[in-house]
Specification:
Layout (H helix, E strand, L loop, with lengths): L1 H23 L10 E4 L4 E8 L6 E15 L2 E6 L6 E6 L5 E2 L8 E8 L5 E9 L1
Parallel strand pairs: 6-8
Antiparallel strand pairs: 1-2, 2-3, 3-4, 3-7, 4-5, 7-8
Length: 129
Amino acid sequence: MRSYFLTLAAATLIFSASSAKAQSDPASRSSASTQSTDPTTNQAGAAAQKDESSTTTIVSQSASGKITAVSGDTFAIELGDGESKETMQFLTDSNTAKSGDLKVGSEATVQYHSGPQGEKTATKVDIRG
């Protein structure tokens, strides 16, 4: 009976070690994720995902501030306060999820991704006020 438990324990250790090695092997993973914070633009974070079947990297970021302008399919928010204010412009499209109407003076948190020419397309806008 004792040898049975020792054999079972050894098999468990071998299986655990091989599973841990497979998980840590970069070739066995199909996507990568990173997190960062950029205090100069008040971005809450960025996450990068890379699809191994293509060379496109999608970076999702977020910013919060007061809506200062709305025109057609674009709007702007002002980030920061005092001397460190910054204005960011965003595009919206049919895929942009909005929790209300974009109105000047409302507070908003915008999730967005940057395009190849640096344009910022809003994917989700959480509007407060």
